[in-house]
């Protein structure tokens, strides 16, 4: 037992620096598995795995590096824009007076100038720090694609190994695997699709209205759209406020209308894409997303809810199987 613990700790130390890329490779292998099954019917396993890995490099790795570079520049530009934005103080004060409120906008801005400046500086520094880690990201992507190839080639062997190692009966294993499969599909494929729909729609609105840093705002919308009851709302509402404060009421009205439509669409698109049978509890999603980011990095946005949901499903299945065994023993 001591030897197993030592080996496990040493293996963990080796894997830990790139665990998020390894986990991401597992997610991609799961997503691409249906395509892999079709290719295996025509080609050998290694050839099929190589084709999909090359596809992942073209579709995921190369765009990711480009996106990171562009996102870094736009995030810094966005921070500078927020810090230098000029507010139409007279317009805002007049509008507030019509509502019976008297506010000195200049005094409010002066009182909070340091807070605004600190926030902008933190955003810029964090973005630049991410850009400086680009060499490590490239190494991680190499590891990701290699692990992806191995999982696509030998994934069935890994699943058989897990099946053999689980100390539970075959019927319970089948139920557990089936429920975990529905959970992963809901969290990985369903949530990403639902968030992507909102992000692309709102990004199109930002582009049509002439916003700068559209890519940054679109990615921010996608990340927040993974959270229930949050989504695009947190992005487009400040945008409406910004347009109002700068006196662009016409554009603010357009943004308000489209923002409401996009946020309301979440109540229809998410159930449509995910389905109702494997939907995740809102608390599990929220805790899983933030805890997943801390534990796994950016990929934790997706894998965090799967880990928590998987723990819940596993506990339910194992306890139900134990209760059935106890009932059968009492009956006999």
UniProtKB/TrEMBL annotation:
InterPro entries: AI-2E-like. It is found in: Membrane. It comes from the Archaea. One of its GO terms (cellular component) is membrane. The chain crosses the membrane at residues 6-35, 47-68, 133-152, 183-208, 214-235, 242-263, 283-308. It is a multi-pass membrane protein. Pfam families: AI-2E_transport. Keywords: Membrane, Transmembrane, Transmembrane helix. Belongs to the autoinducer-2 exporter (AI-2E) (TC 2.A.86) family. This is Putative PurR-regulated permease PerM. It comes from Halorubrum alkaliphilum.
